[in-house]
Specification:
- The structure is a single chain.
- The protein is mainly α.
- It has one domain.
- The protein has three helices and no strands.
- The longest helix is centred in the first third of the chain and has 16 residues.
- The radius of gyration is 21 Å and the shape is elongated.
- It comes from Sesamum angustifolium.
- It is an enzyme of class 2 (transferase).
- Its cofactor is [4Fe-4S] cluster.
Length: 110
C-alpha cells in the first residue's frame, strides 16, 4: 500500500458514518423523552454529571471542543490557501474562515 492509500484510509476513519449519525440521533431523542434535553443556550448553570452504564457501573465522559488556529497568507492568496486546506483536510476540519487581521498597535481615530 502506498502513502496515498494511507491518507485516504485515514480520512475515512475520521468521518462519522451514516449509521453512527443515526445512533447519535436516536440517543438524543431518547434522552429528550426522558427529560434530558441538550443545554445549548441560556444562563450559565452549575451541575454534576453522573454517568452510569446499563449494568450499573460508572464511566467518565469527555467534553469535545473545536480547537482553532490562525494562519497568515501572502497577499491575495487567501482563497487559494482556503481551497487547499479544505481539500487536504477534508473530513478532518470543522470549518475554515477567512478573517481580517486587526493591528491592535494602531491608535484608533474617532
Amino acid at each position: 500500500m502506498n502513502g496515498t492509500d494511507n491518507r485516504r484510509r485515514d480520512r475515512r476513519d475520521t468521518r462519522i458514518s451514516k449509521k453512527q449519525k443515526l445512533i447519535l440521533n436516536a440517543e438524543e431523542q431518547l434522552e429528550s423523552k426522558l427529560g434530558f434535553d441538550a443545554f445549548t443556550e441560556g444562563e450559565k448553570r452549575l451541575g454534576w454529571l453522573l454517568t452510569f452504564a446499563s449494568d450499573g457501573s460508572t464511566f467518565k465522559a469527555k467534553y469535545k471542543f473545536r480547537p482553532y488556529f490562525y494562519a497568515a497568507t501572502k497577499d491575495n492568496m487567501e482563497m487559494d490557501v482556503e481551497a487547499y486546506l479544505r481539500r487536504r483536510y477534508e473530513g478532518q476540519v470543522a470549518d475554515i474562515a477567512i478573517v481580517e487581521k486587526e493591528d491592535l498597535d494602531l491608535v484608533k481615530q474617532i
